[in-house]
Write a structure and sequence with these properties.
single chain; mainly alpha; membrane; transmembrane helix; transmembrane
C-alpha cells in the first residue's frame, strides 16, 4: 500500500492529486472530529454514571438514616419511660414515709411490678433493635461493629443491675388483687423500713446508671450517623459528647478500633463472652 501511494505521488500530476489530497484531509478531519465527539460523550457518560451512583448512594444513606432516627426515637422513649418508672418508685416511697411521719395522709406508691416488667422488656427490645441495625448495616462503616458491642455491653449491664432492684421492688411495690370485683383493689401493703428504702435507693441508682450508659452510647451513635450519612449535605458537623466525668466511656467512630477492643476485653459483657467462647471451643475439642 505504501509503494502504491509513493508511485501514485510521483506518476500522477500534482493537479490531479489535489482533489484526492483534499478528500483525504476531509476524511482525516471528520475522523478526528468524530473521535473528539466520542471522547466527549464518553467523559459525559462517565460523569453521569458517577453522579447517578452518588445520587443513589445518597438516597440509600438517607433511608438508612431515617431507619436509625426511628429506632433511636423508640429506644429513647423506652429508656426514659423505664428509668423514670424505676426511679419514681423510690421517690414515692420516700415521700410517703415523710408524709406519714408528719401525720399527713398520702396515696400509696403508684408503681406496680407488672408495669415495671413491661417497661423493662420494652427497653430491652428497643436496644436489641439497635444491635440488629448495627449488624445489618455494618457495610457502611467498620465502626458499626464497635457500636454493636457498645449496645450489648449496656444491655448486659442494665440486666445485671435489674436483678437486685427487682428482688427488692417485687416485695414492696403495691400489688393488685387479681380478678377482684373492685378494679384496682390492692393486697394489704406495709411501708418498708428505712434500711430497706436505703438499700432500694442504692439498687435504683445502679440501675439508672446502667440505663443512662445506654442512653449515652445511643447519643454518640446518633452524632456519628449524622456526620457519616448526612454530613456532606451540610457544612456543620456535630462534635462528640464530652461528659464532665472522665471515667465515662464515649463511643466514637474515629476511635472505633480502640473502643472495640475495650468493649470486647475490659467489660463485664466482653469477659463473659470470652469465657463462653472458651467453654464452647473446649467442648468442641472434646467432642471432636
Amino acid at each position: 500500500m505504501a509503494d502504491y501511494l509513493s508511485n501514485l505521488w510521483h506518476i500522477v500530476p500534482w493537479v490531479s492529486l489535489t482533489p484526492f489530497i483534499g478528500a483525504i484531509a476531509t476524511i482525516i478531519a471528520a475522523t478526528l472530529a468524530a473521535l473528539v465527539v466520542i471522547s466527549q460523550n464518553a467523559k459525559q457518560a462517565r460523569r453521569a454514571t458517577v453522579q447517578l451512583r452518588h445520587t443513589e448512594a445518597l438516597k440509600l444513606k438517607m433511608r438508612v438514616y431515617e431507619e436509625i432516627v426511628g429506632l433511636c426515637r423508640e429506644a429513647g422513649d423506652a429508656e426514659v419511660s423505664y428509668s423514670s418508672y424505676a426511679s419514681g418508685f423510690v421517690i414515692d416511697l420516700t415521700l410517703y414515709r415523710e408524709m406519714a411521719r408528719a401525720g399527713l395522709s398520702w396515696g400509696l406508691p403508684k408503681a406496680r411490678a407488672l408495669s415495671l416488667f413491661e417497661k423493662q422488656a420494652h427497653f430491652s427490645k428497643a436496644v436489641i433493635a439497635l444491635i440488629s441495625l448495627a449488624e445489618r448495616w455494618g457495610v457502611i462503616h467498620p465502626g458499626l461493629e464497635m457500636y454493636r458491642l457498645a449496645f450489648n455491653v449496656a444491655l448486659h449491664d442494665a440486666e445485671i443491675a435489674f436483678d437486685p432492684y427487682r428482688s427488692l421492688v417485687i416485695r414492696f411495690m403495691p400489688a393488685e388483687i387479681p380478678n377482684s370485683p373492685e378494679q384496682g383493689s390492692l393486697f394489704p401493703w406495709t411501708m418498708p423500713d428505712d434500711a430497706t428504702i436505703q438499700t432500694l435507693k442504692v439498687a435504683t441508682d445502679a440501675l439508672i446508671k446502667a440505663i443512662d450508659s445506654f442512653g449515652g452510647f445511643m447519643y454518640d451513635f446518633q452524632i456519628d450517623m449524622q456526620n457519616l450519612l448526612v454530613g456532606e449535605l451540610f457544612e456543620h458537623r456535630i462534635a462528640p459528647r464530652q461528659p464532665l466525668d472522665p471515667k465515662i466511656v464515649v463511643a466514637r467512630l474515629d476511635d472505633w478500633e480502640k473502643l472495640k477492643a475495650y468493649f470486647e476485653n475490659s467489660t463485664a459483657w466482653g469477659k463473659m463472652k470470652i469465657e463462653i467462647d472458651a467453654r464452647v471451643r473446649k467442648a468442641n475439642e472434646v467432642a471432636g
